[in-house]
Amino acid sequence: MNSGTLFLLKHMRNIRAHKSLFSSYILMFLMCFNNAFSQEESSPEYLILVNKAQDLLADKKYAEAGAMYSRALKLDPQGFHMLSRYNAACSYAMAGVPDSAYVQLDFLVEKARFNEHKKISKEKKLKPLHGTPRWDTLLAKVKRNFIASEAAFKKSKENEKKAVSFHDSLRGKAAVPFSCTDVNGKKYELSALKGKVIVFNFWATWCGPCKMEMPELNKVKEKFKGQDVVFISFCDNVDSIAILNKNLAKNPFTYVMVIGEDARKLNKLYAVSSIPVNIVIDKNGIVTFLEAGYAPHVVTEMEHKIEKSLED
């Protein structure tokens, strides 16, 4: 359980007590959960400061609350921390410090792609900002974000439908030929790996379910150590080995690592639209297992397919 989960559970009482501030944002928070907490892993100091700010906001000590939120956010100035930034903006607006409120709102709109235009336009604690050109400009940007997010969602659903159809057609058929290079410079090609069982995992640093299955995947890899099985992972949202290592320090993963453009190329080849995705290719290059999404049975079934592929 990461710090985001602990924070949410710890403060459910406060969330219920101040429903007008948080109710519509619980869903937004959960949707942004991976990005806001799993990837950023808020520090204990940050959580302590946010807790204090939350109490000050509840007590209507708006200037102090805004200052406390700002102290917390300075610990991770590029982190999304959407609830904290939103609450800081509300605090500063009520304290009569509009410039500080807009610092947080502009970050949410420009970097975090905040798109809840109905919520923000009705937020009572932001009313001191209403009726100015700057506010109207901000609302217009939020609406554009909403339209863009709706279009992106529609496209993702279309891509997912195509991916499901492609995956269904691929099971039991020849694997798509591929070539990639891992973070250590070693090259892998389907043709060169004939006679070996190949196991793929597609993941991303922001993906909570991906991280949940990693310990079990590591056990599977260890079980087949020394046998003709090659385990390759593809992380398409990382281009830097340093960033990869930072994430692996928190979530150890022992597969061969392919990142950046090669990972994105493989994602496209295998029509990966939702993650995690696990694939097993037998010694003859036939896809014997392909599952998208996380579920407890997936790793067990994958393990059985590897065993069977080694026996054939």
How would you explain this protein's 3D organization?
With 312 residues, the chain is of the alpha/beta class. It has two domains: 3-151, Serine Threonine Protein Phosphatase 5, Tetratricopeptide repeat (Alpha Horseshoe), CATH 1.25.40; 171-311, Glutaredoxin. The protein is built from 15 helices and seven strands. A five-stranded mixed sheet has the order 5-4-3-6-7. The protein has a two-stranded antiparallel sheet with strand order 1-2. α7 runs antiparallel to α8 and α8 runs antiparallel to α9 (98-110). The radius of gyration is 23 Å and the shape is elongated. The model is unreliable at 1-40 (pLDDT under 50).
Mean pLDDT, all residues: 86
Q: Distance between termini?
A: 40 Å
Please state the CA-atom Rg, rounded to the nearest Å: 23 Å
In CATH, the architecture of the largest domain is Alpha Horseshoe
Tell me the major beta sheet: 5 strands, mixed
Structural class, by secondary structure, is alpha/beta
Per CATH, the class of the largest domain reads Mainly Alpha
Q: Can you lay out the helices and strands and say which pair or pack?
A:
Layout: H1 3-10, H2 12-17, H3 19-22, H4 25-31, H5 33-38, H6 44-58, H7 62-74, H8 82-94, H9 98-110, H10 117-122, H11 133-170, E1 179-181, E2 187-189, E3 197-203, H12 208-223, E4 229-235, H13 241-250, E5 256-259, H14 260-269, E6 277-281, E7 287-292, H15 296-311
Parallel strand pairs: 3-4, 4-5
Antiparallel strand pairs: 1-2, 3-6, 6-7
Helix pairs in contact: 6-7, 7-8, 8-9, 9-11
